[in-house]
Design goal:
Helix content: over 70%
Shape: elongated
Distance between the termini: 67 Å
Order of helices and strands: HHHHHHHHHHH
Radius of gyration: 19 Å
Largest sheet: none
Number of strands: 0
Strand content: under 5%
Amino acid sequence: MNIGHIISNLDKNLDNLTDIYGVQIYIFLFLVVYLKTAFIVLTFLPGDSIVFASAALAAVGKLNLWILLALFIFATISGDSQNYYIGTLIRKWQQKKPRLNFLKENQVQSAEAFIQRYRNISIIFSRFIPFMRTTIPFVSAYTNYPFYTFLKFNSIGAVLWTFFWVTLGYVLGNLKWVENHLAVSLAIISMIPILVPVVFIIVKKGGTFRRKGNMQ
């Protein structure tokens, strides 16, 4: 059993792998979401698409919806907590050995300013933005953001993120076209996280233009 191959191709071959490995597939699903959020270097692993694909299979009776909900919420919270812990270790290590600069000072200041500006909102909704979901937990710890505050709002984000993708996958999974063209559906669905920051920038700039227009 090549675990690395299974994990890297899980979203694309989930239907076949479920038939082959049965209940063991839940272990692989947990590992993918956990590892993706726990370690910044593994951000390339599938995230949104794997949750969507799993819920789509639950819609046709191949996986258990309630197990998936509990599994993904726990994997996300524990993975982000691990990421936070790594950030704490790096911060303490760098305090003892200041010559070992893992992050540039201006990067730390920028990240800290971002978290302080948006605070709890940045932690909750970073789950929906690519790259941010893996960097925010690390930077939160690195900039000494309180863990229990982080855990509280990160848990809210984990629940919202899981329910969003599971609900979307389960509802669309009942459509015959999605069931028959899961690979195409995953390609389309994977575009949604990319559009989130684009929409955010458009809305933000639109608000800026309106304020300037009102001032004239």
